[in-house]
């Protein structure tokens, strides 16, 4: 597919969101902001913890103590790894579609068809996740994928995207449609160097003035022998705004093996709390992200 077509598709997605927000200011419950927030995440290396993180963040956004369903945001979790996606298995539910079904919808995607690719997995939480397929990330038709994102983009308050680690023809379009794009890594020196490189390449390819967020997952606050401190990480990446999520092996193991987000059984664990803190800040600053998204759309 040509880049021009991909760009047009992003603009279409954007226009639709604008129209919807203009015509109905109460279209979503995002704090302050009028458009749905799209937050996407990509691992700098395998096993960085992206899937666990998006599953927990999506769950956390969709629930609230003592709140009624109508008062809570509608959240959609999208697993864009068509080869090794784990979102559905981390939630112990079947995938919601197959690559061939999605591809067959190219050129005729509408809201009703788009809905058939979505599975509800909580009161206010839904998921799009494909059955794994060898080479799935190359087989997926980018037009069909972007049309799907386009058709569902205004029906949710938050859309969280688990983006595969390897760059694909459609990765830039996904970043372009996101309010927040975050690179996730484990704190090691090689991963930090790679993150800096990746971040620079994304910034220059897309001519961005705001670089991707950088999130150090599995971060240990107490200093470990030969471990990476926040100061080291800031020095290597030349960034003072790094995000961290705590190392919390037991709750993560329990989560994966029970098919439940950490917040479901341990909402006060270090892991759930550190993700909640990031979410809270992002929700508060949601309006600023819209400006960043405008810039990405133009890239
Ligand atoms: N904060 C954390 N602390 C400890 N273990 C973690 C943490 N985040 C993820 N893990 C573990 O790391 C492994 C990879 O996580 P996963 O979410 O599948 O990563 P990815 O999607 O980036 O490949 C899993 O075994 C998971 O339980
Ligand atoms: Mg994953």
Keywords:
about 300 residues; alpha/beta; Rossmann fold; eight-stranded mixed β-sheet; 14 helices; about 15% strand; globular; disordered N terminus; binds adenosine-5'-diphosphate; binds magnesium ion
Please explain how this structure is put together.
The protein contains 14 helices and eight strands. With 299 residues, the protein is of the alpha/beta class. The chain has one domain: P-loop containing nucleotide triphosphate hydrolases (Rossmann fold, 3-Layer(aba) Sandwich), CATH 3.40.50.300. β7 (213-219), α10 (230-237) and β8 (243-246) form a beta-alpha-beta unit. α1 (3-23) packs parallel to α7. The chain is globular. Bound molecules: adenosine-5'-diphosphate (ADP) and magnesium ion.
Q: What spatial order of strands do you see in the largest sheet?
A: 3-4-2-5-1-6-7-8
- CATH-derived architecture: 3-Layer(aba) Sandwich
Total helical segments = 14
CATH superfamily: P-loop containing nucleotide triphosphate hydrolases
Distance between the termini: 18 Å
Task: Report low-confidence residues grouped into runs of 5 or more.
Answer: 1-34
Please bin the fraction of helical residues: 40-55%
CATH top level label:
Alpha Beta
Q: What overall geometry do the principal axes of the alpha carbons give?
A: globular
Looking at CATH, which topology would you report? Answer: Rossmann fold
Reported for the largest beta sheet, the result is:
8 strands, mixed
**Protein structure class:** alpha/beta
């Amino acid at each position: 597919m040509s880049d021009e077509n991909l760009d047009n598709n992003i603009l279409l997605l954007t226009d639709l969101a604008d129209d919807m927000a203009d015509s109905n200011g109460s279209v979503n419950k995002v704090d302050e902001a009028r458009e749905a927030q799209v937050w996407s995440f990509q691992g700098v290396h395998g096993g960085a913890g992206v899937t666990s993180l998006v599953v927990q963040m999506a769950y956390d956004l969709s629930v609230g103590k003592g709140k009624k369903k109508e008062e809570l945001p509608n959240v959609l979790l999208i697993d864009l790894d068509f080869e090794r996606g784990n979102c559905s298995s981390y939630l112990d539910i079947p995938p919601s579609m197959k690559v061939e079904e999605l591809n067959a919808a190219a050129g005729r995607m509408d809201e009703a068809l788009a809905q058939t690719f979505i599975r509800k997995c909580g009161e206010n939480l839904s998921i799009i996740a494909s059955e794994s397929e060898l080479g799935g990330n190359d087989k997926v038709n980018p037009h069909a994928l972007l049309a799907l994102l386009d058709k569902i983009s205004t029906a949710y308050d938050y859309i969280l995207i688990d983006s595969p680690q390897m760059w694909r023809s459609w990765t830039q379009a996904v970043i372009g449609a996101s309010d927040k794009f975050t690179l996730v890594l484990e704190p090691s020196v090689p991963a930090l160097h790679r993150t800096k490189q990746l971040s620079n390449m994304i910034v220059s390819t897309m001519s961005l003035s705001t670089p991707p967020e950088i999130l150090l997952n599995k971060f240990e606050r107490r200093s470990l022998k030969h471990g990476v401190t926040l100061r080291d990480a800031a020095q290597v990446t030349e960034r003072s705004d790094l995000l961290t999520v705590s190392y919390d092996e037991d709750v993560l193991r329990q989560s994966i093996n029970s098919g439940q987000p950490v917040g479901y059984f341990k909402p006060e664990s270090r892991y759930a709390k550190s993700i909640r803190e990031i979410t809270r800040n992002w929700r508060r600053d949601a309006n600023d992200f819209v400006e960043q998204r405008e810039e990405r759309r133009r890239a």
